[in-house]
Amino acid sequence: xxxxxxxxxxxxxxxxxxxxxxxxxxxxxxxxxxxxxxxxxxxxxxxxxxxxxxxxxxxxxxxxxxxxxxxxxxxxxxxxxxxxxxxxxxxxxxxxxxxxxxxxxxxxxxxxxxxxxxxxxxxxxxxxxxxxxxxxxxxxxxxxxxxxxxxxxxxxxxxxxxxxxxxxxxxxxxxxxxxxxxxxxxxxxxxxxxxxxxxxxxxxxxxxxxxxxxxxxxxxxxxxxxxxxxxxxxxxxxxxxxxxxxxxxxxxxxxxxxxxxxxxxxxxxxxxxxxxxxxxxxxxxxxxxxxxxxxxxxxxxxxxxxxxxxxxxx
Amino acid sequence: xxxxxxxxxxxxxxxxxxxxxxxxxxxxxxxxxxxxxxxxxxxxxxxxxxxxxxxxxxxxxxxxxxxxxxxxxxxxxxxxxxxxxxxxxxxxxxxxxxxxxxxxxxxxxxxxxxxxxxxxxxxxxxxxxxxxxxxxxxxxxxxxxxxxxxxxxxxxxxxxxxxxxxxxxxxxxxxxxxxxxxxxxxxxxxxxxxxxxxxxxxxxxxxxxxxxxxxxxxxxxxxxxxxxxxxxxxxxxxxxxxxxxxxxxxxxxxxxxxxxxxxxxxxxx
Lengths: 314, 269
Ligand SMILES: Nc1ncnc2c1ncn2[C@@H]1O[C@H](COP(=O)(O)OP(=O)(O)OP(=O)(O)O)[C@@H](O)[C@H]1O
Ligand SMILES: [Mg+2]
Fold this sequence. Notes:
Mean pLDDT of chain B: 90
Bound molecules: adenosine-5'-triphosphate, magnesium ion
Mean pLDDT of chain A: 89
Helix content of chain A: 25-40%
Largest sheet of chain A: 6 strands, mixed
Distance between the termini of chain A: 55 Å
InterPro entries (chain A): AAA+_ATPase, ABC_transporter-like_ATP-bd, P-loop_NTPase
Domain ABC transporter (chain A): 2-227
Shape of chain B: globular
Order of helices and strands of chain A: EEEHEHEHHHEHEHEEHEHEEHEH
GO molecular function (chain A): ATP binding; ATP hydrolysis activity
Keywords (chain A): ATP-binding, Nucleotide-binding, Transport
Radius of gyration of chain B: 21 Å
CATH superfamily of the largest domain in chain A: P-loop containing nucleotide triphosphate hydrolases
Oligomer: heterodimer
Family (chain A): Belongs to the ABC transporter superfamily.
Structural class of chain A: alpha/beta
Strand content of chain A: 25-35%
Order of helices and strands of chain B: HHHHHHHHHHHH
Number of strands of chain A: 13
CATH topology of the largest domain in chain A: Rossmann fold
């Protein structure tokens, strides 16, 4: 359990985290989303007692990180996987961590096995690839068998196999009743991994909801309609417009209708006597829901064009 | 992966705290090759210094030119430590803390040992004894090379004085290590730590010596470098004895670590 109350961090004039109130509960994966510079890493650093909050508090299991007697046995974290002395071996790195918290030596070999680094345990970390470094970071997080896990962009640099592996680890950790708090920019990945999502923008909380709810609530659910005859298509677009829905033309002969139900479009087509080749509800994705939520708080964004399919006139 | 409740099983030994922190530092210290390189360099630098000084002292005595050639092997050992050997120790201490800031691994260290004073103390708890033992090894090596280099112009050396000098060398290297750790925690950069260390240990005392204001000269005598020279009996001024020198070094070690602790407390990692 992670509890943030009024958590605020200012760097000079920049407010990186702005009054976050949040509870990250055990037994599920909580995804942490937000544009670049939204304050995700800063929040995680404050939870781990690395950065001192300007105001408010971050508690883990009801305590400040510094008050934890054996912190690695309560909180496992992966922040920056490359932050290891390059001349150290993987085993030496994990062994020093284990010793600091009175964790049995055999646990080092166990986690090396779990992350698949056993064969390179005696190699210097400086020679590791990006993905191997990431795996070592995850090994470090798992070392103390902690009830709370914090991962900052854990799939960064992992191959597709590694991405799936992180997903299954995160899922099984949560199923064991642990608190899993994980940031990522990969929306499709997050949609499959997280139960709950916390979205922040410019340091402020934008949403804290179950993933499914967030997606459902999104207005971006669409209906895809394929109309083979161009004249029919124009007619249908006009009728849909009159009914108050927005349409968008895709590259082929299809229309995408925003905010409508398939039955409404089917009825309109029936009234107009328009022949359809396809009528399908497209579930909104987390990515779309996220884009909608954060469109106002992208700090370092590029201009976002709403429609890249080009102009089409009826 | 075990159940959450199985966590204590993984923690067979209930160690943590300062003991655990020191065990981790010990593991880290010997986990990199550069530790051995630094310690070997300390010995090599001291030996090299005593050889150069010894050989030149022998030739200058032969030609009987100049004032007092340095023919005391114990003194050559002491000056070798101050002028050369201690900088390898400074480099080692820099790797122990300042380079953790360079690699970002300080964050990992603080995740393991979040209590700042414990983290800082654990570094010295490990490094100081290692350096003391290093001093005990370096001293006979440097003394031997000094005697050999001086040949028949060498002053006689007693066993008691040799043992005392070995303890002084060990003590001084330990102090240099602890002072450098404090500087590293305060300055947080490799280049910065080496620069400040070099200034405090050698450059500043020498500069102050050359100032013709007596008060300033006296003040310079109390810096760590001159204190080390007093401890090893190679001081140019007789302001204080070895006992006061030892106390002064302890003071500097604590002061540097207090400064380092203050920065650790007040700045983000
Ligand atoms: N040590 C620091 N000093 C000054 N500003 C900082 C510091 N750390 C972070 N910031 C600023 O705080 C803001 C939040 O940064 P943070 O790294 O927490 O964002 P993030 O959500 O993790 O972004 P990303 O998705 O790119 O990783 C940014 O504007 C950043 O420039
Ligand atoms: Mg980040």
